[in-house]
Amino acid sequence: MLQDVFNQPDEERRATAIAGIFSEDVVFRDAEGTATGRNELAATVAGLLAQGPGLVFTPDGPYRGVADLGMRSWQLGPPGGATILGGLDVAQVADGRIVRLWTILGA
């Protein structure tokens, strides 16, 4: 699950989750730019976590998908608190791993 990556403050656990979910050459795109590969993704996630310590991503609605594409809305906020930001993740999967992930803010 993406929360196992984007909510994980422990670097080793996050790296293990990334290796299990994402392809080696994953491409992640959001409003801030593009990260290519697991190492860049890990650095990007570390930066996101540093921007909002104590905040967590939670799914907001069901997973939806067709063929190799999937999407899910999410919310960001303190555990049990008000939503600060929402968005939508769109993922392309190949061989059981995410190869491309787009994050759209405010969706």
Structural overview:
The longest helix has 14 residues, at 38-51. The protein is built from three helices and seven strands; from the N terminus they run ααββαβββββ. The protein starts with a helix and ends with a strand. Strands 1, 2, 3, 4, 5, 6 and 7 form a seven-stranded mixed beta sheet that branches. The protein has helices at residues 3-6, 11-21, 38-51; strands at 22-30, 33-36, 56-59, 64-66, 69-77, 85-94, 97-105. The protein has a single domain (3-105), classed as Nuclear Transport Factor 2, Chain: A, CATH 3.10.450.50. With 107 residues, the chain is α+β, with helices and mostly antiparallel strands. Residues 12-100 form the SnoaL-like domain. It comes from Nakamurella flavida. It holds the Pfam family SnoaL_2.
Describe this structure in a few short sentences.
InterPro entries: NTF2-like_dom_sf, SnoaL-like. With 107 residues, this protein is α+β, with helices and mostly antiparallel strands. The chain has helices at residues 3-6, 11-21, 38-51; strands at residues 22-30, 33-36, 56-59, 64-66, 69-77, 85-94, 97-105.
Give the structural class: alpha+beta
- Radius of gyration (Å): 13 Å
CATH topology (fold) name: Nuclear Transport Factor 2, Chain: A
CATH architecture: Roll
Q: Please count the helical segments.
A: 3
| Tally of distinct domains | 1
